[in-house]
Specification:
alpha+beta, three-stranded antiparallel β-sheet, 3 helices, globular
Amino acid sequence: RGEKLLHMSRGLKNYLESCGFDCGQSESQIIPVILGDNKTALAARDILIEAGIYAAAIRPPTVPEGTARLRLSLRADLTEEDVQKIKAAFGGLKAELEK
């Protein structure tokens, strides 16, 4: 289960980075999506919630100023359909952020 989780996490992180998201140096099932400012992180969180995905918005002082982010925490029981839903939601998020 642990290896499956790490494999899934690497695949999702690679997808997010291919979309232009900064995922930092994470190599675990916790994937940061660094967006920069608080306003963008909160708006992104809300867009994802509307798409049925919960990603916590992490802001200063928890992280350094200018590195507000979303935090994805994957679980071993996620299905391929779940991962596809996450990818679709982030694809929609990317389009919204570029407006």
